[in-house]
Structures are given as structure tokens and as C-alpha cells.
Design a protein that fits this description.
Number of helices: 13
CATH class of the largest domain: Alpha Beta
Order of helices and strands: EHEHEHEHEHEHHHHHEEHEHHEE
Shape: elongated
Strand order of the largest sheet: 3-2-1-4-5-6
Distance between the termini: 63 Å
Helix content: 40-55%
CATH architecture of the largest domain: 3-Layer(aba) Sandwich
Number of domains: 3
Number of strands: 11
């Protein structure tokens, strides 16, 4: 934990009171909370549970009745307070707890002023809101992490893991980091991998993928090795290159009797050779790899590309 001062602003009308323990535990990892405020019409029956939360955790309730059914006065009050706190210069960061995409511009404005902004909300929040934040934390994942042995339905998992970056994309990004460092004669530290993933993907959190540590997450990609040298931990590419001739034999056999869609062929190759990466063979695209082979060709038919025997 650092001594960074953080303003915690909770959109109570958009957030369940049941997440309060996860919110406070997570934000304490980023610094010291000096402002604790929640916003809503607390006379509303749906928000009455927040009244006890406010007393228990010493959170200031900013009660805002609705003046119009078409306007959310609480959201406007949160924005006004955020800007007041920003101009007072008493904090180095904000935590905005809401899944409401309407706060995207506020987050952008705070970032423009050099503030770190931690977003917290549901996994199905808009990509724009997640991207605007320095980091975005999925409250559903955090709650499951704290609830030992809690059963969850497959439908719940679909919601919680909505819109997270694919492991395939993350693997490619890590591969590029290591390649660039190798070309510059530099080692790649595990800490560098973690910090650059967070900067590139604001919603990145290994817990979103069912892991508790970055090192295990990276190792399980099966393309990298995590090595410890003294107090330092480094990540290198694993020597997993498959023989090109074996891959070519597999492809030729697949199209021996009939053509196969290029995309389907790619899936078949990745399924058969788990660690296949076309870049390992000097090609940027799978199609280029196919075109380099003897005895097969890529043909276009009705806007679709197929691999066929010559």
C-alpha cells in the first residue's frame, strides 16, 4: 500500500451495498482513502440498506432527491464533487464506483489532470468506461474471490467475464514485449509484463481469468517460462517451436480429398499443435504460411478463402 491520497466516490444508485467490503479492501491497495462519499436518493426503499453501511464505514451520504424523472441528480452531484475535490488539490487519485457509462467523460477529465482513476463496477460495463480508467476492477470477481466455496451458475460466469480481453490477444502482446526487449538486448521482468498489461488493458486483472498470481497466469499460457534469479523474476519465451514439416504434412492431409475454409484450417492447426504461432516461422499471417507450402494453394470463392490441393 502507498501513501497516495484517494477520493472514493460511490454511485449508490448503480452499485449494490453488498460489494462494500470488496470496494474498501481493493482501494486500500492503492493508497489512503481521504474522501469517502456515496450518492443517491436515500429515502428510496432500494437504497435504505446503504444507510447502515454509511454508519459502519464512516461514509458521507450525499442525499440528492430526484427533481425530475428524466435527470439523475445524484450523478450530477457526484461529478460536481469530483471536480471540487480535483481543484482543491488534496488527492492524487480517485476511485469511481459505478458501471454507468455516463461517467466516462468525468474519468477522462480527471485523467487529463494527471489523476489516477480506479473504476469499480460490473463486468458488463461499457468498454469506453473501462478504457478511460487507469484500472477497472470487476466487483463480481472480487466478491467471488472473498467468498470461499461459493457456488455460481454458468450464467453468472457469462456476465462476470463479459468483454474481457482474450488470452490469445494477451499472449500476443506479451510475446511482442519479450521480442522487442530481446532485440534491444534487455531482459523482460515479470513486473514489467504486469505493469504494461495494465497500461494497455485497463480492465486487466488475473482474477478475471481465475488466477491469483501473474506468474501462474503467464506460465499457463504455455508459451513462456518464468525464471527466478535471486530477488528478480524474468519471463522468456519457451522453446516450443513445432517442426514446420510436421505442420505441412498435417495440412496436406486435411485437403487431400476436399478444400477447407482458411479459417477452419487455422483452427485445426492450432488444435493439433497447441503452441503453434505463425510468427515463429517468419510469417505475419497464417495465409502467408500456407502460400509458402508446396502442393497446396489458397483460392477465393464468393468472398471466402479456401485451402486446396494443387
Amino acid at each position: 500500500m502507498t501513501d497516495k491520497r484517494i477520493a472514493l466516490l460511490i454511485d449508490a444508485e448503480n452499485t449494490s451495498y453488498r460489494y462494500i467490503d470488496e470496494i474498501l479492501k481493493e482501494i486500500n491497495e492503492y493508497g489512503t482513502v481521504t474522501y469517502k462519499r456515496m450518492y443517491g436518493n436515500f429515502t428510496d426503499d432500494s437504497l435504505k440498506a446503504w444507510n447502515d453501511i454509511a454508519v459502519k464505514h464512516a461514509i458521507v451520504q450525499v442525499h440528492q432527491p430526484r427533481y425530475s424523472s428524466a435527470k439523475n441528480a445524484s450523478d450530477i452531484m457526484l461529478v460536481i464533487d469530483a471536480m471540487d475535490i480535483l481543484y482543491n488539490g488534496n488527492v492524487e487519485g480517485f476511485c469511481i464506483v459505478s458501471s454507468d457509462s455516463d461517467f466516462t467523460r468525468l474519468v477522462n477529465r480527471l485523467r487529463e489532470s494527471g489523476m489516477e482513476v480506479i473504476g469499480m463496477g460490473k463486468g458488463n460495463a461499457s468498454k469506453a468506461l473501462k478504457a478511460a480508467c487507469t484500472a477497472y476492477k470487476n466487483l463480481e470477481i472480487l466478491q467471488d474471490e472473498n467468498a470461499e466455496g461459493k457456488a455460481e451458475s454458468s450464467e453468472d460466469n457469462k456476465v462476470k467475464k463479459a468483454d474481457i480481453t482474450s488470452i490469445v490477444e494477451l499472449t500476443g502482446y506479451i510475446d511482442d514485449i519479450i521480442s522487442k526487449n530481446e532485440n534491444a538486448g534487455k531482459d523482460t521482468g515479470l513486473g514489467e509484463i504486469g505493469s504494461r498489461l495494465i497500461k494497455a488493458y485497463s480492465d486487466f486483472d488475473v482474477r478475471n481469468y481465475g488466477y491469483k498470481s501473474l506468474s501462474t497466469f503467464v506460465e499457463d499460457m504455455n508459451r513462456f517460462e518464468v525464471k527466478k534469479e535471486g530477488k528478480s523474476t524474468y519471463v522468456t519465451k519457451a522453446d516450443l517451436k513445432v517442426s514446420k514439416s510436421d505442420i505441412e504434412k498435417f495440412i496436406r492431409k486435411k485437403v487431400e480429398t476436399e478444400p477447407m475454409h482458411l479459417g477452419t484450417m487455422g483452427q485445426e492447426v492450432h488444435s493439433q499443435f497447441k503452441n503453434f504461432n505463425v510468427k515463429d516461422y517468419g510469417y505475419s499471417k497464417f495465409e502467408s504460411f500456407i502460400k509458402s507450402m508446396q502442393g497446396v494453394e489458397v483460392k477465393k470463392k464468393k468472398l471466402q478463402k479456401y485451402v486446396k490441393k494443387k
